[in-house]
From TrEMBL:
CDD domains the UniProt entry points to: HPPR
Keyword Oxidoreductase: yes
Domain D-isomer specific 2-hydroxyacid dehydrogenase catalytic span(s) in chain numbering: 7-312
Keywords tagged on the record: NAD, NADP, Oxidoreductase
Domain D-isomer specific 2-hydroxyacid dehydrogenase NAD-binding: 108-281
PANTHER family per the UniProt record, alphabetical: 2-HYDROXYACID DEHYDROGENASE YGL185C-RELATED (PTHR10996:SF178), 2-HYDROXYACID DEHYDROGENASE-RELATED (PTHR10996)
InterPro entries: D-isomer_2-hydroxyacid_DH (IPR050223), D-isomer_2_OHA_DH_cat_dom (IPR006139), D-isomer_DH_CS1 (IPR029752), D-isomer_DH_NAD-bd (IPR006140), NAD(P)-bd_dom_sf (IPR036291)
Record organism: Granulosicoccus antarcticus IMCC3135
UniProt record similarity statement: Belongs to the D-isomer specific 2-hydroxyacid dehydrogenase family.
UniProt name for this protein: 2-ketogluconate reductase
Residue ranges of coiled coil: none
Pfam families per record: 2-Hacid_dh (PF00389), 2-Hacid_dh_C (PF02826)
Enzyme class at the top of the EC tree: oxidoreductase
Length: 313
């Protein structure tokens, strides 16, 4: 029996190939008339595959009453209407943990890049400025500084291990203290920001975390502090962050995520105290293949009446 699925957007070719050889797949993003597609498959579609950025809305779900699983290629599920899914008995699975190491690597890379001005240095060397102008201005050390992690889930724990290697003093702000972390728990994000040199954002996007990194937190971080965000752009008050970077109210930022992706505030493009990435922290072949396998494994578990490997609570 071939189950009918709706695929919201493109995934890795290998994942799409396996999906389309195992199921009857309809490509939502390619449909000229998307509502007409939903009407056509409403009687047959039993599942949805999407990614963390696209998610799936209630408006789509309500047109597919037989869909009982949403398998998400990504750890973030803030773009999935979880309330609708719970109310209608739709299982949701995502792909946590398999991307934690790569995201933690990116967070560390961004901290190094913005502190040591790696992008500026690369441009300085390529433009032939070194022999003409001499050494570029001095940069900031990362080793031995104080780091605060906002969100001590699997990514936060992986990041902490890397920060330990740089001899950093580590504190974290989380919903509650973790018994498996030896680092200092701080209940207040603002209090933590006031006592660190680097504020790393690795928390999930929830009603309690969206907009949490606001002016008060950035004021506490101060003109010597750096912000690194590898979570969701919505966790930071982006207009305030742009203003603070322009006015040097914080030392700099390493940003992999933005509030209105794929749009990035143009004001950031000319600033040398920010390093930008196109939401690519998990963007390695190894991690994306592992994520794809988990998407497929969650689907297989569901259709074989077994528990999902990684259910979203």
């Amino acid at each position: 029996m071939s189950y009918t699925l709706l695929l919201m957007g493109p995934l890795l070719p290998s994942v799409m190939s396996t999906l389309e050889s195992s199921y009857t797949v309809h490509r939502y993003w390619e449909a000229a008339e998307q509502d007409a597609l939903l009407d056509t498959i409403a009687g047959d579609c039993v599942g949805i595959v999407t990614d963390g950025g696209r998610g799936v809305s209630a408006a789509v779900l309500e047109k597919l009453p037989k869909a009982k699983i949403v398998s998400v290629f990504g750890v973030g599920v803030d773009a999935v209407d979880l309330a609708y899914c719970r109310e209608h008995g739709i299982s949701v699975g995502n792909t946590p943990d398999v991307l934690s190491d790569d995201v933690a690597d990116m967070a560390m890379a961004l901290a190094l890049a913005v502190s040591r001005q790696l992008v500026t240095g690369d441009q300085y060397a390529r433009a032939g400025r070194w022999p003409k102008e001499g050494a570029m201005p001095l940069t900031r050390r990362v080793m031995g500084k104080r780091a605060g992690i906002f969100g001590m889930g699997s990514i936060g724990l992986a990041l902490a291990r890397r920060l330990e290697g740089f001899g950093m003093q580590i504190s974290y702000c989380n919903r509650s203290a973790r018994s498996d972390s030896p680092h200092t728990f701080v209940a207040s994000l603002e209090e933590m920001a006031a006592n660190v040199d680097y504020l790393f954002v690795t928390a999930a996007a929830t009603p309690g975390t969206i907009g949490a990194v606001n002016a008060a937190v950035l004021d506490a971080l101060g003109p010597q502090g750096y912000l690194v965000n590898v979570s969701r752009g919505t966790l930071v008050d982006e207009p305030v962050l742009v203003k603070y970077l322009q006015e040097n109210k914080i030392a700099g930022a390493g940003l992999d995520v933005f509030a209105e992706e794929p749009s990035i505030p143009e004001a950031l493009f000319s600033l040398e105290n920010v390093v930008l990435q196109p939401h690519n922290a998990s963007g390695t072949w190894e991690t994306r293949e592992a994520m794809g396998k988990l998407v497929l494994d969650n689907l297989a578990a569901h259709f074989n009446d077994k528990p999902l490997l990684t259910p979203v609570s």
